[in-house]
Design a protein that fits this description.
The protein is of the alpha+beta class. The protein folds into three domains: about 5-90, Butyryl-Coa Dehydrogenase, subunit A, domain 1 (Orthogonal Bundle), CATH 1.10.540.10; about 125-230, Beta Barrel (Butyryl-CoA Dehydrogenase, subunit A, domain 2), CATH 2.40.110.10; about 250-405, Butyryl-CoA Dehydrogenase, subunit A, domain 3. It has 14 helices and ten strands. The strands form three sheets. A four-stranded mixed sheet has the order 1-4-5-8. A four-stranded antiparallel sheet has the order 2-3-7-6, with no helix packed on it. It is globular and about 75 Å long. The chain starts with 6 loop residues before the first helix and ends with a helix.
């Protein structure tokens, strides 16, 4: 998508390019280019660089230390970060819990939590999903019962990304009757991860990575002052968080950059009839993916403009999430097809870097299998694609798919 930039916007773009060229650490950039997993210290180092520049929180209001950038500025920033192989900011603190705190928290909570989130002095994780409550959060069973000045929290959260590194977890918990399965009984709590009674157990994903965890709460005491807003209003607060989370899961800029890499690799991959780009079946699938990505980019831009006008992303965020996930996974599949038989060896990136022998596997295919398997989870986290379709049907088309199925 071509945007006609103003003089000021062109100056901003040049500033962004200069900043990324001079301040993005080369070792972090190389890890991103090679598809290697970044360590916690890599993310923290980069986010602190952004903090020193004043660009850590591009969506936050000025009054809390944010940039409050326009839609065009956000578009420029995302595009240049993708081109420069800058890591995406870990969202749990800056993009997810912080907006809930500065929107619904009291002054003491804002003063206590926001500065450390902005400076990346603390690491957060998200405690929503449970073994029997994934996208259907209204059925979650983790309870928080008042005992004096504390809530006593008991239950299990699962698929918790980076819980092994986190200092804090923000949780939806049931503060009403355990038998009440509705949104009105849920509250939003902030819980230190070093609290007695919390156990973190690793969950290893298909690609062999340890990103996710199970977190068990056994009679964990949480001060009532750590509740955001009113008791029983947690679902209202979390909906704002989820809409912003889903809108950011489109990953348009990253997918555009990956698609360009795919095209170049396809031109360089020889077959019996020229390059892979000469294969009509492969080129048709690539063209279809590029068309979907272009349409997604326009939709994302309309959402960014709406946000700039203080309009929260509604069901549009579900559209962005569904299509963005589909495009990303289609690109994964095209990279697998490009790699062919070379995708079969499942090589750990750290081992590949240290390997001193003759490399017979094309460089661009080393991480293909790992990235493909890791990204299968994208259609589940942040609300599964099926749940997003229900939201779109209900909020845009005016009917509930679940009710329609019940009628049949």
């Amino acid at each position: 998508m071509k945007i006609n930039l103003t003089v000021e916007e062109k100056a901003f773009e040049a500033n962004v390019k200069d900043f990324l060229a001079s301040e993005l650490p080369s070792n972090i950039k190389q890890k991103v280019l090679q598809g290697r997993a970044l360590k916690k210290e890599d993310h923290v180092r980069w986010q602190k660089i952004l903090y020193e520049q004043g660009w850590a929180a591009i969506d936050w209001p000025y009054e809390y230390g944010g940039c409050q950038w326009s839609a065009i500025q956000k578009h420029i920033w995302a595009a240049q970060c993708a081109i420069s192989a800058a890591p995406e900011v870990i969202p749990f603190g800056l993009d997810m819990v912080a907006p809930v705190i500065y929107t619904y928290g009291n002054d003491a909570q804002k003063e206590r939590f926001l500065p450390d989130i902005l400076a990346s002095n603390v690491w957060w994780c998200q405690g929503y999903s449970e073994p029997e409550a994934g996208s259907d959060l209204a059925s979650l069973k983790t309870t928080a019962v008042i005992d004096g000045d504390y809530y006593i929290v008991t239950g299990v959260k699962t698929w918790i990304t980076y819980a092994q590194h986190a200092d804090w977890i923000f949780c939806l918990v049931r503060t009403g009757s355990p038998q009440t399965v509705n949104n009105d009984a849920l509250s939003f709590l902030l819980i230190p991860m070093d609290s007695p009674g919390i156990t973190v157990t690793p969950i290893i994903s298909m690609d062999g990575a340890h990103e996710m965890n199970e977190v068990v709460f056994e009679n964990v005491g949480v001060p009532i002052e750590n509740r955001i807003g009113e008791e029983g209003k947690g679902w209202t607060y979390s909906k704002t968080l989820l809409n912003h989370e889903r809108a950011k899961l489109a990953h348009v800029a990253v997918s555009k950059n990956r698609l360009q890499e795919l095209k170049k690799a396809a031109h360089d991959t020889l077959t019996g009839h020229g390059s892979l780009m000469d294969d009509p079946r492969f080129s048709a699938k690539l063209a279809r993916t590029e068309i979907e990505l272009t349409a997604l980019e326009f939709t994302e831009f309309r959402t960014l403009i709406a946000e700039s006008n203080d309009t929260d992303p509604g069901p549009e965020s579900s559209i962005l999430k569904i299509v963005g996930t589909g495009v990303s996974q289609s690109i994964d599949e095209l990279f697998v097809e490009l790699a062919g038989l070379y995708v079969l060896p499942f090589i750990d990136p750290e081992s590949a870097e240290k390997f001193a022998g003759t490399q017979i596997i094309p460089k661009q295919t080393i991480n293909t299998a790992r990235l493909y398997f890791n990204n299968r989870k994208a259609s589940l986290f942040g609300g599964s694609s099926e749940i997003q379709k229900n939201i779109i049907c209900k909020d845009v088309l005016g009917f509930d798919l679940n009710e329609k199925r019940g009628e049949k």
